[in-house]
Each structure stands twice: as structure tokens, then as C-alpha cells.
Design a protein that fits this description.
By secondary structure, the chain is of the alpha/beta class. About 20% of the residues lie in helices and about 35% in strands. Belongs to the bleomycin resistance protein family.
């Protein structure tokens, strides 16, 4: 019955969001409707809605993305000089995952994880 989930996150500036996800993270744009942007990478789809008054320091948007090549992806982001969250370096967690995190331009937290 349920087949997929596509989180919706706030964005202040469509161009900044598009540039980060397409340029920095390697997503592709699959829809742009002015106040609504959709991006995709492999099986992951994220939607964004316009929220120009968003205070990034008060944003609690979060997404957990599973991967099967966490070290490869982590290292590719480091090589591309993508800033990893100060408390989000790649490490093994007690709940059986290797994870790392980063913040997008609006402080939506993206956590990437792979089972140990």
C-alpha cells in the first residue's frame, strides 16, 4: 500500500536551495513551480515550499536518508568542500548506524545513515 515518502522542507530562497541540492549534493530538479521545488537523487525525492520569513536558527526541518555507500558519499562531500555539521562527522552510533549530518542553506538537517 505505502510506496514512498517525500519530505517537504521550508526554503527561503528557491535559487539558493536549488544551487545547494543540485550543485553541492548532486540532486536533479524534477519540478519547479515558483513557490514549490522538487529535487531527486537516485531513489530520494525532497520537496521544498516557499517560506520567505523563515528564521533558519528556529528551523527544525529534518530528513534521515539511508545509503548503502556512506563512506564514499561522505568523502565525496568532503572533497567538494561541503560543510559537515559541526556535531555531525561520520561515526558509528549506538543504534547500529554509521551516520553524518549537514545543514542546507535554511538549516534543514540532513542526516545520512547506513546500517553497520
Amino acid at each position: 500500500m505505502l510506496t514512498a515518502i517525500h519530505p517537504k522542507l521550508p526554503m527561503r530562497n528557491r535559487d539558493a536551495t536549488r544551487n545547494f541540492y543540485l550543485g553541492a549534493l548532486g540532486f536533479q530538479e524534477i519540478g519547479d513551480y515558483g513557490d514549490y521545488l522538487m529535487v531527486q537523487k537516485e531513489g530520494i525525492e525532497i520537496h521544498f515550499f516557499a517560506f520567505p520569513g523563515l528564521n533558519p536558527k528556529e528551523n527544525y526541518g529534518q530528513v534521515y536518508i539511508r545509503t548503502d555507500a556512506i563512506e564514499t558519499y561522505y568523502n565525496s562531500l568532503l572533497e567538494a568542500k561541503i560543510r559537515i555539521h559541526p556535531n555531525g562527522a561520520l561515526e558509528a552510533k549506538p543504534w547500529g548506524q554509521r551516520e553524518f549530518s549537514l545543514l542546507d542553506p535554511d538549516h534543514n538537517l540532513l542526516t545520512f545513515g547506513q546500517g553497520i
